[in-house]
Design goal:
single chain; alpha+beta; three-stranded mixed sheet
Length: 574
């Protein structure tokens, strides 16, 4: 036959290449494969033996490492390469960092983990959607893959590390980075914040829209009826068939749900008034607000206080931010110091007794203080020596009826509720009541915690952790921030945004997220912006309360509007 006898092709390397044996006219093996970069079919000489041809084919496909030729090594899978990198680097990290890298890495490993690392292409990496993560988490994912690939680059990679890492899609803009200036669109409007608060506090329960037998219309009034039942229903537990007194169970659930929605409102207010991160909020206990000298037991014991009795006397809104409960992998919670360098930055935050008016944007431009605005409705606050924290229940509801949410009243309601809870009141004496009360979490899980033999919940701790993490028996434990956001806070925020027609710009642009409302971190922007617009809070004080590393960082992110620094003498006002 002209041209010699051609033998059947031999498939090798899981079908990624074929070999043709030598023929009458060709004395060497022929390799047929597709170029791993261009995808075009190619053929080349494979040498005089089949073993040599297989080695050369593997090399062309990026699987071959010359120094391993004699050992017949095979490329690791992406998961094996990841595990090797983790093991090599683990000694340099704390436990939380390693856990976080494992959590982030699983997004790729769940799809490509069993593939040989030589087969991973930039196109594969680009297919992974990370848009639901923050820009910071997306960049962390890029750093993770860079570390894995760098460890393998001299052995198995056929693409450069730069090509592979560049394929990680980082969404958003540079303004989303922690070091970039906060855009005006990242800060919720006062009317949106206050609408969320009104909606939360009037869901299931209208107790706080009535005073002295007459209706009080909280402003903004469009949300005075709370969330619609179709949203509330998703938080109802249902009633088992074996309950004999179903009406009683329904009534108990109504009370519980009203409390839960008030808690969502207070979480929002603490973000908008104190710039507390969600992990910091979920770690708050009574002791972080009240010292022993601050406790006014007579007030706490009277949940039906009349309209004319001051809610607070000596307390002026101080909260110690000493720890945070962060989401870890596998459903666990990390208990650490607040975010910051050198093991976290403990700080004191001064909460405003009253938040900016719902229809007012004046605080953004620093034209006037909230005190000056509310003296139109409560004349005694015209005296600057009178702390706004001495407001009465009647004054609080009056201010809210004019669109100024009283954070002092919201906090008093929650602490009073905890003080009068059965777990406190069943204690035998005042000292035990005080001890249990001070250790209660403000925002625990709905179900009682499952504690270990040491009395601690199923949480993980930062190295050398010395804080008290015990959970009071028969009470809930630290909440998952992810579960809280997805199941409870996001539906509230999205409903208000949908009704107002004012969407968070980043969510409007990213339609795949399905979100409409701002995030809890947007409330932090809201708070810090209002601090800097206040004549009572200087830039250094605002930076200190925000927990920033230095004043320069605060200025870079929020550099607008500064004021004086009289917060520790009178309490914080905006």
């Amino acid at each position: 036959m002209a041209g010699g006898t051609r033998r059947a092709s031999i498939s090798i390397l899981n079908g990624r290449a074929t070999l043709n044996p030598p023929s009458d006219t060709r004395k060497t093996w022929t390799i047929n494969y597709r170029d791993p970069i261009t995808g075009k079919p190619k053929s080349t000489s494979g040498g005089h033996t089949r073993e040599e041809a297989e080695d050369r084919a593997a090399e062309k496909l990026g699987d071959w490492v010359p120094e391993h030729r004699r050992k017949a090594a095979t490329p690791p899978t992406l998961r094996e390469a990841f595990d090797e990198w983790m093991e090599a680097e683990r000694s340099r990290w704390n436990t939380r960092t390693a856990d976080n890298y494992s959590y982030v890495g699983e997004r790729f490993l769940s799809i490509y983990g069993e593939q040989p690392i030589t087969t991973i292409t930039p196109a594969d990496i680009a297919k992974i959607d990370l848009s639901h993560l923050s820009r910071g988490q997306q960049k962390k994912t890029r750093s993770l893959l860079k570390g894995v690939f760098n460890r393998q680059k001299d052995k198995w990679l056929r693409y450069s590390v730069e090509e592979l890492v560049a394929a990680v899609k980082v969404t958003g803009t540079n303004s989303s980075d922690p070091s970039a200036q906060v855009r005006r669109g990242d800060i919720p409007r006062p009317d949106w914040v206050n609408s969320v608060l009104v909606c939360a506090y009037t869901t299931v329960d209208s107790t706080y829209t009535r005073r002295s037998g007459r209706e009080v219309i909280l402003q903004p009034s469009d949300f005075n009826r709370g969330l619609p039942e179709e949203i509330v229903a998703k938080q109802r537990r249902g009633i088992p068939n074996h309950y004999s007194d179903r009406e009683k169970r329904i009534a108990e659930e109504e009370v519980e749900l009203a409390s839960r929605f008030r808690q969502y409102g207070l979480i929002t207010a603490l973000g908008a008034g104190g710039a507390l991160r969600i992990g910091e909020v979920l770690a708050l206990r009574v002791r972080h607000f009240l010292d022993e000298d601050d406790l006014d037991f007579e007030t706490m014991l009277e949940p039906t206080i009349d309209d004319d009795t001051p809610l607070w006397m000596q307390y002026m809104g101080r909260v110690e931010v000493v720890e945070q409960a962060s989401q870890a992998s596998k459903g666990k919670i990390w208990l650490t110091r607040p975010k910051g360098r050198n093991g976290g930055k403990i700080r004191t935050v001064w909460l405003p007794a009253v938040l900016p008016g719902g229809s007012s944007s004046q605080f953004v431009y620093g034209r006037t203080t909230v005190r000056e605005q509310i003296t139109n409705y409560v004349e005694r606050f015209a005296d600057p020596s009178v702390s706004l924290w001495t407001m009465t229940r009647g004054e609080a509801l009056t201010l809210w009826s004019y669109g100024y949410p009283p954070l002092a009243f919201m906090l008093w309601l929650r602490l009073t509720e905890l003080w009068n809870s059965p777990v406190v009141q069943r204690q035998g004496n005042a000292a035990k009541k005080k001890s249990v009360f001070s250790r209660l979490l403000l925002f625990p899980t709905r179900n009682p915690a499952r504690l270990g033999r040491d009395g601690l919940p199923n949480v993980m701790f930062a190295p050398n952790w010395e804080g008290d993490a015990t959970i009071v028996e028969d009470t809930g434990t630290y909440q998952s921030s992810t579960n809280l956001a997805v199941r409870y806070m996001n539906p509230l925020y999205d409903y208000v945004s949908e009704e107002m027609g004012g969407y968070y710009p980043a969510h409007r642009q990213n339609k795949l997220s399905g979100r409409r409302g701002w995030t809890h971190h947007g409330l932090r922007h809201y708070a810090i912006s209002s601090w800097l617009a206040s004549p009572l809070v200087s830039l250094p004080k605002a930076s200190e309360m925000a927990g920033h590393t230095n004043v320069g960082f605060t200025l870079q992110r929020y550099g607008h509007l500064f004021g004086g620094d009289d917060v520790e003498r009178r309490g914080f006002e905006i």
